[in-house]
């Protein structure tokens, strides 16, 4: 799923205690990663996805360009900072983003958004090594600061940042028959190769938030699938059958995993790119957030 194409950009409850921006002691405490309804409570089916339950993805944001057209996803990681994919904003200048882009939080149905759900961007931080060398799909990440703080509630809540890599025990075993299951959501296309009228009034593919469960593939499997396009800050997720996948318009959105009651739902990936959508033996590539934490912390003032 990309903002406009397929490769390299895939335009193709409990009351928790949050240890800052997942970095203990660095940021004031917030609630994170404890949705009212768990993403995993839906069946395992954005290609072949299912409607997300209300309040199961309170961190997801829909990036909108004028006149109110959703083109990418994003994730709330504090009460005022958002993560997305670098390629989602690659065609915009910083000034253009500030002038024309809004981000919707707190709704699953984009047509139900009110002015209170819409946020402007006041600051853009791009990774200094994004797409370097050109065509490498590397460092596909960006930070956006909102024009005001969100009210932390069941509707809007940050995802936790990971304390471990998605591949570290005890959370994962990467054998093909015992892979870790994580989840992705978005308002992107529901059919690979879909163009023109997708049925959504303002969504890239749909106005209703969809989600799908994906298997996290081992580093060796990912390297074999992506070949020369693999980078160390990327991981692969999908299904060998290709039946379930993210797609165009989902880029920049979250890949979250349940890291247990102590850590909550953590943002392990950012949807980056893929070879079409839902193709057999062609998993999607995602920016590996755990390996970008130093960059995130360095760019968000405490």
3D architecture notes:
- The protein is mostly beta strands and 302 residues long.
- 7% of the residues lie in helices and 25% in strands.
- The protein has helices at 94-100, 219-226, 293-299; strands at residues 50-51, 60-65, 69-76, 81-84, 101-105, 118-126, 142-146, 180-186, 210-216, 234-238, 254-258, 265-273, 284-288.
- The strands form 2 sheets. It has a 6-stranded antiparallel beta barrel with strand order 8-9-10-13-12-11. It has a 6-stranded antiparallel beta barrel with strand order 2-3-4-7-6-5.
- One of its GO terms (cellular component) is extracellular region.
- Residues 1-24 are annotated as: Disordered.
- Keywords: Disulfide bond, Hydrolase, Protease, Secreted, Serine protease, Signal, Zymogen.
- Its main location: secreted.
SSE topology:
Blueprint lengths: L49 E2 L8 E6 L3 E8 L4 E4 L9 H7 E5 L12 E9 L15 E5 L33 E7 L23 E7 L2 H8 L7 E5 L15 E5 L6 E9 L10 E5 L4 H7 L3
Antiparallel strand pairs: 1-9, 2-3, 2-5, 3-4, 4-7, 5-6, 6-7, 8-9, 8-11, 9-10, 10-13, 11-12, 12-13
């Amino acid at each position: 799923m990309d903002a406009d194409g397929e490769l390299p950009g895939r335009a193709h409850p409990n009351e928790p205690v949050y240890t800052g921006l997942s970095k203990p002691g660095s940021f004031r405490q917030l609630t994170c990663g404890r949705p009212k309804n768990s993403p995993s409570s839906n069946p395992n089916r954005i290609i072949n996805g299912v409607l997300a339950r209300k309040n199961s993805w309170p961190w997801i944001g829909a990036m909108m360009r004028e006149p109110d057209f959703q083109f990418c996803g994003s994730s709330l990681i504090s009460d005022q900072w958002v993560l997305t994919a670098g390629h989602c904003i690659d065609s915009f200048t910083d000034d253009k983003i500030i002038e024309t882009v809004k981000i919707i939080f707190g709704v699953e149905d984009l047509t139900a958004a009110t002015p209170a759900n819409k946020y402007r961007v006041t600051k853009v931080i791009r990774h200094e090594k994004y797409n370097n060398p050109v065509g490498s799909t590397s460092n596909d990440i960006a930070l956006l600061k909102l024009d005001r703080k969100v009210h932390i509630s069941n509707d809007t809540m940050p995802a936790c940042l990971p304390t471990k890599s998605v591949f570290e025990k005890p959370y994962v075993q990467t054998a093909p028959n015992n892979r870790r299951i994580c989840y992705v959501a978005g308002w992107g296309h529901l059919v690979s190769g879909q163009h023109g009228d997708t049925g959504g009034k303002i969504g890239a593919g749909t106005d209703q938030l969809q989600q799908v469960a994906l298997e996290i593939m081992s580093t060796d499997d990912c390297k074999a699938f992506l070949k020369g396009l693999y980078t160390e800050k990327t991981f692969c997720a999908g299904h060998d059958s290709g039946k379930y996948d993210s797609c165009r318009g989902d880029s920049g959105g979250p890949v979250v995993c349940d890291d247990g009651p102590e850590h909550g739902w953590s943002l392990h990936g950012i949807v980056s790119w893929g070879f079409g959508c839902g193709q057999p033996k062609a998993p999607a590539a995602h920016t590996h957030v755990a390996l970008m934490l130093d960059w995130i912390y360095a760019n968000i003032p405490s």
